[in-house]
Amino acid sequence: MNAIIEKINRALAEAETRAAAATDKAAIEQLRIDYLGRNGLFPALSKEMGSVPAEERKETGRAFNAGRTRIQELIDGAMERSGSTAADSVTERPDLTLPGRRRMTGHKHPITMVADECVAVFRRMGFIVADGPEIEDVFHNFDALNTPQDHPSRDEQDTFYFPDGRILRTQTSPVQIRVMESHEPPVRIVAPGRVFRRDTPDATHGMNFHQIEGLYIDRNVSMADLKSVLQTFATEMFGSGVKIRLRPHFFPFTEPSVEYDFSCHMCGGKGCPVCKNSGYIEIAGAGMVDPAVLRNVGYDPEVWSGYAFGMGIERLAMLRYRIPDLRYLYENDVRFLEQF
Ligand code: PHE
After folding, report:
1. Domain boundaries defined on the chain
2. Most CB atoms within 10 A, among 31, 94, 113, 282?
3. C-alpha dist (Å) from residue 46 to 60, 75, 135, 305
4. Atom of ligand 1 nearest to the CA of 289
5. In angstroms, what is the span from residue 198 Cα to ligand 1's centroid?
6. 143-161 pLDDT per residue, tens
7. Which residue's C-alpha comes closest to atom 9 of ligand 1?
8. Mean model confidence pLDDT for the chain
9. First to last CA, the chain
10. Which of 145, 154, 171 is the pocket-test mutation for ligand 1 (most atoms within 8 Å of CB)?
11. Rounded to an integer, what distance in angstroms lies between the CA atom of residue 306 and that of residue 336?
12. In CATH terms, is domain 110-337 a member of 1.20.1250.20?
């Protein structure tokens, strides 16, 4: 019997006694540390193994393995008697000094954030939120909005048609019709939502995008009311520095009609690629609701008048967050989305 086997036998005898006496977790853990731990007996013995003469090596190796197994049994046995499991052992408890792992929480998409913000601003001005379907009929999207039969926006090149003749709404304006059909005047609503057009995507156009529609019908509503609401909205969203610009335009459902720009938030109005060097970004179409539209929904244009507007939410988001290209909003790249 060589020195190593002797040490193993002595250790086993000692460990039997200690294991029988060990009742608390700390004592059992100490047992493991002393014999099996990194600086314990068995790892030390395994280093001595190299010096064992070849003819004794087999026997020594067997004693070593048997001894190590036995120690583990003693530890397991003691552990069971003390009512703890391996998972409770001191070393396997979670390390409370480690830095925490950050939870990945989602958040609203920037488009939704801006849409919510717009709605909040208009609610403070007394507007309530209305809603309409994304799959519309031609009547609400075009006919009732006084759009002539040969108007280019009805073209299949601009509008997505379903085989049954229904369409993906090209604007949120059909919500105006739906609200007026179902409510007596006065009405004051905003309607945020998704719209669809067969545009070729570029930095400021997409095939589907979002608008927020506004409609106010009452007695004696004027263009000045429209202008003040739009200016108030611009200031609330972008601060007092933002300038607005109305340009004469044409829409079949408003008369007079305007297009309506905000000074470019990206360059402060100096001119940049986003505003195509004009210093302004087109945000909305607007105007006084055409009497023909009021008649279509059974409102008397001699009594009631009003304004309507439709703004591009992506355009607002671009200004709000200084996003140079609208396509970022749809690529779902978390490196982009995480920044909001
Ligand atoms: N619906 C128009 C568009 O999409 C915008 C608009 C809304 C214009 C309301 C006037 C009144 O371009």
Report:
1. 3-90, 110-337
2. 31
3. 10, 20, 77, 96
4. 11
5. 17
6. 999 999 988 888 888 899 9
7. 309
8. 91
9. 74
10. 171
11. 40
12. no
